[in-house]
Design brief:
alpha/beta; 498 residues; elongated; five-stranded mixed sheet
Length: 498
């Protein structure tokens, strides 16, 4: 098991410096620093709960502490420690359910998955929610088949409630943990199983209700906008499922074999159903994203579901080895399964590197923008400003920064947002943006024609036709994709005539 953790750590550590911060990483760490400034000094901050897909007072401050200690690499290493904890909890959970050999293979298969390795070098809330849900599942199994296990159920519900607060998208996995509580206790009677489920569910509901009362309506609005009504993507459902298959197809296949083995060996309907639930958990997030036509954050959802799928996969490998004749044949079969892990290790290593370098390197853009932002106090319109705000000291002056989704006024109030108030990812209102540009509100405008392409072209036409705005830089930013110009930031400076 220590060797498994060492391999996982080594493969994730090589990703820590693979690229500059991703937008989500930059947003989370930037928000965390502002939260600390608010708590310690009363500094005004944006209304993060209204547009964050998780409580901004949990992971962002933790990530910001690590970032303060050692920059982005330290924040990513924090995620690695959390993912190592998730692997250890997977080993402990599977060992109690199906034995040590199954636990070892379950942990190994999970540890070397591409999404697992990527989340171990990704400074967002994802690693924290994985380890919290893993802790919840471990507590349920730790209670055993007999006894009320009330304390363990309360602990499981507490971990689950915190995971739901950390990332709202983790809520569907509550059903998996509840199914685990039900099916592991069922052999001792339906009444005990029902009481355990009720205890977990009640704990989650009470804690989340208390959190909503403390946080207020802003959290409810943020949950509705980011989780219940997310902006639909443009990726075909088959593309979403194809990506899922490339990352976790092998795991799902092996886990499915575990379900078949359990059914064929008549191991009991409760165990077979539990293995089926574990297998289905792998595709729980991807199916929802396929419905939404979205690829964003798909690997994070696969990584969470894979934790459960690995339990069923470990069981399948264990039963395969046990089917061999005791003695030398069984030892050879076990050794062959260990050698076969070379393939998922190689595949996971290559996939995790692709995931960790799947966004543009921001070094050149930050180098160009740094002196412009530092030598002035004017307002800035930057498409996707998260990375720039994170890297630049002026990023803490958040009232200066507007995106192509909304404009920030000096008071900190937003305006010109998407026409639909239920969305936080739509392009801004072109009329409002045009008016602010005409007024000379922005000292600098930087557009990359990627996320809000139609709006960008409308604004670019206006900027090119206004003699007060001058193009001062065209910065390569990723791979150019004609004709939309993805991968190039064009920067304009406002120079009013005397």
């Amino acid at each position: 098991m220590l060797l498994v953790l060492a391999v996982q750590a080594a493969l994730s550590l090589r990703l820590v410096r693979a690229d500059t911060a991703f937008d989500d990483e930059a947003m989370a760490l930037w928000a965390g620093h502002l939260e600390w400034a608010h708590w310690l000094h009363g500094t005004p901050i944006p209304a993060f709960p209204t547009f964050f897909s998780g409580a901004p007072v949990i992971y962002p401050p933790l990530g910001a502490l690590a970032d303060s200690a050692g920059g982005l690499p330290a924040a990513r290493i924090l995620s690695l420690l959390l993912m190592l904890g998730a692997t250890a909890l997977l080993w402990g959970t599977t060992r109690r359910l199906y034995g040590q050999r199954a636990a070892l293979f379950a942990a190994a298969l999970f540890a070397v998955l591409g999404p697992t390795l990527h989340l171990g070098a990704f400074a967002t809330y994802d690693a924290l929610r994985v380890v919290l849900i893993a802790l919840s599942a471990w507590c349920v199994v730790r209670a055993g088949e007999r006894g009320r296990g009330t304390g363990w159920m309360i602990a499981a519900g507490t971990a689950l409630a915190i995971a739901n607060a950390v990332a709202y998208s983790s809520v569907p996995f509550d059903l998996v943990v509840l199914a685990l509580a039900l099916l592991t206790a069922w052999p001792s009677g339906g009444g005990l199983a029902a009481r355990r489920c009720a205890t977990v569910l009640a704990t989650v509901v009470v804690l989340l209700a208390a959190g909503v009362l403390v946080g207020g309506s802003a959290y409810i609005g943020g949950f509705e906008r980011t989780t219940l009504a997310p902006a639909p993507g443009a990726s075909p459902p088959l593309s979403v499922l194809a990506h899922t298959a490339s990352w976790a197809g092998l795991l799902v296949a092996v886990a499915g074999c575990g379900v078949i083995i359990s059914w064929a060996s008549r191991s009991g309907w409760a165990q077979t159903c539990l293995l089926a639930v574990f297998t289905a958990a792998v595709v729980l997030g991807p199916l929802e994203q396929a419905r939404q036509h979205g690829l964003a954050s798909l690997d994070e959802h696969v990584g969470l579901g894979a934790w459960f799928g690995a339990i069923a996969a470990g069981y399948a490998v264990d039963r395969f080895i046990a089917a061999a004749r005791a003695g030398r044949a069984q030892a050879v079969t076990c050794g062959a399964c260990v050698v076969a892990l070379v393939f998922p290790v190689t595949l996971g290593a290559s996939q995790s590197w692709a995931l960790a370098t799947d966004w543009p390197n921001a070094t050149s853009f930050i180098a160009v923008l740094r002196p412009l932002v530092a030598h002035g106090s004017g307002h800035l319109l930057v498409e996707d400003p998260s990375v720039a705000r994170y890297y630049l000291p002026a990023g803490r002056q958040w009232q200066r920064w507007s995106s192509t989704r909304n404009i920030i006024l000096p008071s900190g109030i937003s305006t010109g947002g998407p026409a639909s108030t239920s969305s936080v990812a739509g392009a801004g209102n072109v009329g409002v943006f045009s008016e602010f540009i005409t007024r000379g509100y922005f000292s600098y405008v930087a557009l990359n024609f990627a996320d809000t392409t139609a709006l960008d072209h409308r604004l670019a036409d206006q900027l090119h036709g206004d003699p007060r705005y001058h193009t001062i830089g065209v910065v390569p930013y990723g791979t150019e994709v004609p004709p939309i110009g993805r991968g190039t930031y064009v920067i304009w400076r406002y120079e009013p005539k005397p």
